[in-house]
Amino acid sequence: MVMTGEDHVTQIETSCFDLVSYLKEKKQLVEAALDASIPITCPEKIYEAMRYSLLAGGKRLRPILCLTTCELMGGTVEMALPTACALEMIHTMSLIHDDLPAMDNDDYRRGQLTNHKVYGEDIAILAGDALLSYAFEHVATQTHNVSLTNLVDVIARLGRTVGAAGLVGGQVLDLESEGKSNITSDILKFIHVHKTGALLETSVVSGAILAGANLEDIERLSHYAQNIGLAFQIIDDILDITSTQAELGKTAGKDKQAQKATYPSLWGLEESQKQAQILIEDAIAQLAPYGREAYPLEAIARFIVSRKN
Ligand code: GRG
Question: What enzyme class is recorded for this protein (predicted)?
């Protein structure tokens, strides 16, 4: 690609954007809000189990995307914080259920024992259920200064994202595909668009809707999010092969062990990395109309392909 003088200036400017500080600041905000969102009350055991996984760290990418998009579209952090927390509650419950013996059967997550290893399978299932229902209660009761139409739109999208048209649907096909050698890249894409991409897309789009964005911006940001969602999963598949348990905070090499089709198994490592990069460039191209206001979203997209866990 031939780089013009203007491209060069833009690249230097975005490379000056301090993503590390940006993510740190937003992560602190989200973690304080998550901590405050679920006090321990009776019966203590279930609240402790919910908090154990919710406050176990993680990149907090979904809430950060929601806050960032809301601000890009002229909204405030306060308008989006309850939805940002709900996205993390939903993500966390999906990890708790994903790790259960009936699903991926994992002992470690986010660098610590999985929820069922500490509290037992019965409580882990219930902690996931409680986080899921509380996510909806939290958005509905804690969101202020947002039009009711937009709030209902966000709640409806969250519901769709979680269910058979989203995470659950992707997980079902993922489980059914284990051990099969005839998984095509179309099936693999379907799994990951639903299992991983849907929640990332809703994170981006809900931030925009809460801020009152117009349809054109929502579509543009949707396109950005679909691309980063797929790139995120491609990198996740690569890291499962190339990283260690200490780096990932969860068991490495699980995909091969479970005989799962992955992007590297279909395309090889190098081509998978290349495809992820292409998706990220396409995502970033969607941000052009927003200029430097979109540097955080651009930097997050670049982080997704360069991340180590
Ligand atoms: C949603 C009702 C309901 C049930 C759950 C188990 C299940 C259905 C779906 C599985 C969803 C799943 C675990 C997808 C994987 C997504 C993924 C790549 C997770 C890793 O995300 P990171 O890297 O993790 O953002 P951290 O720990 O940083 O938050």
Answer: transferase
